[in-house]
Design a protein that fits this description.
The complex is a heterodimer of chains A (159) and B (74). With 159 residues, chain A is α/β, with parallel strands linked by helices. Chain A is built from six helices and five strands; from the N terminus they run βαβαααβαβαβ. In chain A, helix 1 packs parallel to helix 4. Chain A is globular. Chain B is built from two helices and four strands; from the N terminus they run βαβαββ. Helix content of chain B is 31%, strand content 35%. Classes of the chains: A alpha/beta (159), B alpha+beta (74). Chains A and B meet through helix 1 of A and helix 1 and helix 2 of B.
Chain lengths: 159, 74
Amino acid sequence: MADKKLAIIATKGTLDWAYPPFILSSTAAALGYEAQVFFTFYGLQLLKKKLDLKVSALGNPGMPMPMKMDKWFPVLGTALPGMESMMTFMMKRKMKSKGIATVEELRDLCLEADVKMIGCQMTVDLFDLSRDDFIDGIEYGGATTFLGYAGDADVSLFI
Amino acid sequence: MADKELDARGLNCPLPILRAKKALNDMSSGQTLHIVATDPGSVKDFEAFARQTGNALLESNEANGEFSFLLKKA
């Protein structure tokens, strides 16, 4: 059953959006899939050595807010300075209390399970980043690299 | 009595499955792994894990808010 293949494009760089690519690819590896994740644009943040991911309520009206904060600070209030850090702190605390792994842990599990991670070289150039900013054990490539793999994948996801 | 025990209590998706997979890696074919978890989602997940990996799910029980599974390595 090791012949199934999962291909994911990770495009988002917030804490909440960091979970699906790492959860799905680590689980796929545990099920015997070959798994590859292509990190592009803001998703490339997820490969940084030091992660500083935040949650944001901006543009996310469905997000449940702790302590009825949405009543006190409707919509625009979520843009107040310090709000993002506070919400991130609360989210991380909640995750910990529910036994949810940190993004760092899940990423390590992916590396351990030989999930192949590809950083988008164009994004590295675009944001003036250096390969030194990113964790070891990853590769760099472009659209052709992704399609070369995803072309015959059983599951392909854009996240 | 199972050959190996795994305490996955307090862990949430996908950790119980990942830990189980890791435990199975160190076992030989035919050996059994007993897992205890508190994540209600793990019931469906272990069924799907068994179906997709070929390891047999011999038992799946619930008692006092805890779920226990017995897997036999393929």
